[in-house]
Amino acid sequence: MQGLGPDGKPTGQKATYTGASQWDAKPGAAPHQMTLTREEQDILDGKEGEEKAKLMKIVVAYGNAFGAEKLVALGGAPHSNMYVGTEYMRSMIAMFDECAEAGLKAYAPYTVNPRPYDLYNVNNNVEDMEQIYEGYKLQRELDWVHARLGAPDLNFRSCACYLDEIGNAPEPGTYVAWAESSAVNFGNSALGIRTNRNGAGMDLLSAILGKAPLFGLMTDDGRRAKWLVEVKTTNEPDWGAVGTGIGTKVVEDVPYITGLEKYFEGGKVTADNLHLLKAMGSATAASGAVGLYHVEGVTPDAREKGRDLLVEGYQTYVIDDAEQARIIKTFPNLWPEKDADPTAAFIGCPHNSYFEIVKYGRLITEALDKAGKKEAAIPIYMFCVNPVKRRLVADEGELSSKMTQAGVRVTNMCAVSYAGMKGVAERTRGITNSAKTRTYSNFRYLPDDILVEAIVMGKIPS
Predict the structure, then answer these.
(1) d(CA 288, CA 247)
(2) Which of 54, 299, 357, 423 is within CB 3.0–4.6 Å of 352 for a Cys-Cys bond?
(3) For residue 23, what pLDDT is reported?
(4) What is the residue-averaged pLDDT of the chain?
(5) Does the pLDDT of residue 424 top 80, yes or no?
(6) Does residue 293 surpass a pLDDT of 90?
């Protein structure tokens, strides 16, 4: 993936997808060797067992590849995006099964991304079930590995592990080794934790060792911003569009974003507004490879250091009304039948917070009431973790009942996995308000108000 400069031309930046920019890379340098403590060297030498030695060898090689200074002890709790039991994961699942058989565990109970399917609420048809049983043959083995290594039960699987109902939200400055692009993005930015954008497997390797290489977004220098992004829209921005524009522009560099503080009362990220950063951040991570952004006056690093986070010679990107409109116009219509009507709506990628599921439930049911209808024109899939669903039923029973009658199916599966399942793109004309889902599928992106109208009427307004 190539980055674009302010003039729209390629900058020469290529994403490494780790959160460690190639900005200062020096080709041809001698292989790097980081310093290990005596304890770490003993693990590498096999003194704590063959399994831990194998894990340490991989983690050290990973750190050396990115010029890590040393390994650091991890705190908080891990988050893993090893969630699909597909054939290409066989060797990795087998490796962690060996660890589990040897009695190894993560240094703390950890969270995991949602399962890629839901046989009860969504995939309860022959076509989907056939794809699941053919495509996810190792799902049972993977889930059993997680259970033994320290993950909680399946009810707590979520890409939004930082929600109150899940509770994986370490204190600012805590070193962790998370995977899942949107969780890493939110954690580094809104929580102020320190993690690189790890690939599947590296999360659990580090979790079992309790250590991770110190480089990239875990360092002070790696968290400095190379871009100043000025949001100057007349009204509240389209958060998904803004995130898409930023990700496309900066690729994996760190942006310092201004103009958003007024949407966070007192500069605080709360349960009632975190969805704004979740929508924007996940889009930066999907359209680019952003693992950290700073929002002036809002996110922890920016509140502490302000514009001192900007490096000398930073670049500037302005998102005004015209630029926001331009970004949205770049979203292609990938439906095989371009002018056909939508057949399903998808809300919640990353997983909906409680605030969001109540918000969208009310928007949909109130729009139906206004139109004199009880049921939406198309099915609506609402993605959230099970504790959020249970809270909705307990606290908003009447709304929950109306949502069910309207055709809302609440599920704890992964939206992107469903969108990418074989055959779904051909038989589903999906609409979504998630810029992340749009990036990874052929579903069409619509702002909230237009999405709700399309849900009620079964047509996308002109």
Answers:
(1) 4
(2) 357
(3) 46
(4) 94
(5) yes
(6) yes
Q: What is the pLDDT of residue 125?
A: 87
Q: What is the 8-class DSSP label of residue 251?
A: T
- pLDDT of 4 higher than 70: no
User: What is the C-alpha to C-alpha distance for residues 357 and 159, in angstroms, rounded to an integer?
Assistant: 16
Q: Is 115 left (phi over 0), alpha (psi -120 to 50) or beta?
A: beta
Give yes or no for a contact between 224 and 291, defined as CB atoms under 8 angstroms apart.
no
Given a contact cutoff of 8 angstroms between Cβ atoms, the answer to whether 260 and 293 are in contact is no
Q: Which residues on adjacent β-strands are paired with residue 183?
A: none
Query: Token digits for 283?
Result: 């889009």
- The average pLDDT across 416-437 equals 94
If you ran DSSP here, which 8-state letter would residue 127 be given?
H
C-alpha count within 13 angstroms, C-beta hemisphere, residue 304: 12
CA 349 to chain centre: 8
Q: 66-85: string of b/e by CB count within 10 Å (b at 16+)? A: bbbeebbebbbbbbbbbbbb
Q: Is the pLDDT of residue 18 over 80?
A: no
DSSP string across 219-249: STGGGSEEEEEEE--SSS--HHHHHHHHHHH
> Is 60 exceeded by the pLDDT of residue 405?
yes
The yes/no answer on whether domain 344-457 falls in CATH 3.20.20.210 is: no
How is residue 373 written in tokens? 């209808």
Cα(317)–Cα(438) distance, integer angstroms: 23
Report the distance separating Cα 147 and Cα 109, nearest Å: 10
The number of angstroms, rounded, from the C-alpha of 406 to the middle of its chain's C-alpha atoms is: 29
Query: How many Å apart are CA 274 and CA 278, to the nearest integer?
Result: 6
Q: Where in the chain is the domain with CATH 3.30.499.10?
A: 344-457
Biggest CA–CA distance in the chain, Å, is: 72
Name the band, by pLDDT with cuts 50, 70 and 90, for residue 382: very high
CATH number of 38-218: 3.30.499
